[in-house]
Amino acid sequence: MILWTIRHSKPYNPKDVCYGRLDFDVSETFPEESSSAIQAFLNTGAKPTRLFASPLLRCMRLAQKVSEATNLPIEKRDAILEINFGAWEGQKLTAVPRNEMHAWLHDLRGFRFPEGESFHDVDARVQEFLDTLDDNGEFLWVSHAGVIAALHHFACGLPDEAFVEGEFSYTMVSKFEFSRNAEGHFRGTVTKIHDGIKMPSLKFE
After folding, report:
1. What tens digit of pLDDT does each residue of 106-123 get?
2. Residue 201: CB partners within 8 Å, gap ≥ 6?
């Protein structure tokens, strides 16, 4: 199975707050970001038969452009929504309680955000959806850093200590090549195809 992923473009986040489920629109760089990413994807000769997208606006804006370029209808899936940061949503990282921040820094992927999810929770829901796809299919997801990182971790063997969720660029295009293991789960490798706009460094303190 081949899975292509495209991360959403830079969101409009002028207050630089923590966002996962916050439904931000895209920023003014969207036309340039989307066109370069879609062109890079098309240049690969990819031929996906289904297009899945997170229902959040920043993904749907890009998915619409992808749909126009590929003639594929958009299939929304909650399974590939970004992580729910719970009580941290809408706050600056420097404003969250210090004890919670320290707990997260001690266990970046296992810590469950108050009233929200952990990155391990994202792994579980993404794997459950991935396993429903056809072994011989070719698919495209327009989604989020947390979801794409989940694929890196549970399906490609990246250890939890390598926290890539904060390193991916906006509109990054990746190609995953998977086959099922003895337990029926897809496992394989990933290749980065396109870099977009780099994210600013996370400010923890």
Report:
1. 999 999 999 999 999 999
2. 166
